[in-house]
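Reader question, answered in our methods column.
A reader sent in the components of a multi-part assembly and asked whether the whole thing could be modeled at once rather than chain by chain. We filled in our standard form and ran it. Here is what they sent:
COMPLEX SIZE: three components
ENTRIES:
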Amino acid sequence: MMFAVAIIAVFIAMVLVMVRLYGGPTLYDRVIAVNSFGTHTVLLIGLIGFLTERPEFLDIALLYALINFVGTIAILKFFRYRAIGDNLPVNEESEQ
Amino acid sequence: MSLDTLVDVISWALMLSGSFFVIIGAIGTLRFPDFWSRLHAVSITDSAGVILLFAGMCMQAGFTLITVKLIIIGVFLFVTGPTATHAIANAALVSGLRPKEAKGFTGVEPEPLTKPTADPAVSE
Amino acid sequence: MRIFGAIIVFLGLWLLLSGIYKPLTVGLGVVSTLAVVFILTRMNSIDEDRVEIEIKPVGFLLYQGWLLVEIAKANWVVTKIILAPSMPIKQHLFSIPYTQKSDLGQVIFANSITLTPGTVSVETEPGQFLIHAVAYSNDDKAALADMDRRVTACEKADIS
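And here is the structure of the entire assembly that came back:
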């Protein structure tokens, strides 16, 4: 029962963050929203695992936590250097 | 009052307060007027929401392997959440975004930055 | 010596996360642990870089307890700002000096600043961090200097 309440709360929070993701004026607002959405996803998966009494869901939650962090850093690195693979900044004139 | 009831009461309290802070953080991301203040709203979800909800789940799991897994996920979120927030803030600062005076601010003190931000290509 | 430590840590992590103790899964764990350690020893020849944990364990745990209380207080402050109809925001960017010598100490200090709602570490410069506060008051710098002192106290004394 308590997990159902928490799941509803996290779900409402996810919808609110989604509104910010849609309407955020700058790119960085959207990155914050995506990062926050990922944290909510980890919480939601863990709570669903407890609600359905299948603790294996926690492994998926751990995986989502890893992907969320790496994904955020990758997005930021891409928009800063316009490349993910190497850490050398590409020449902006030739890349545009 | 038996021990089970006590554990249930404590985890209800942790779960409800955790849900409260998660929703507060989401409302903050909607209500705050600009990027820099929204960072702090996300920080509420990352700290209070995660700590309280994971503590509540730990109380329900008891002393099992599940608790160890929960603690591992919790510690991971505890370390990576602030790091991601710092990375976003730093990227925004480098790109030239600054807190500026706008509607809704009661008192802004724009203190001059200690140094002009370096070109990202040079700083790496 | 460090290789044996790494093997024990990786194997322990595998056993904790899998939770199945059949010979096949444990054998797979041993194989993957050895593969990871093999790759690590090969990579070591590139830069010989080592992670030194220069933190007192007991002092760090006590600091974590203190940090949790600070997080609770700061959460309440920011929650009141979010729920107030007028939203009394007072944004401020300021720099605060740090006194930690090791990298790990600086990371702990900067992460503690960001973890406390209301302050975010924005930029690291030699000798100081640039901090953004959402509800700045004149006590903030003193509070952060106190946190800096506590983190420095967690460090081991004999660092170069």
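What stands out: Chain C touches chain B through 39 residues (CB under 8 Å). Chain C has a mean pLDDT of 84.
Send us your own complexes using the same form.
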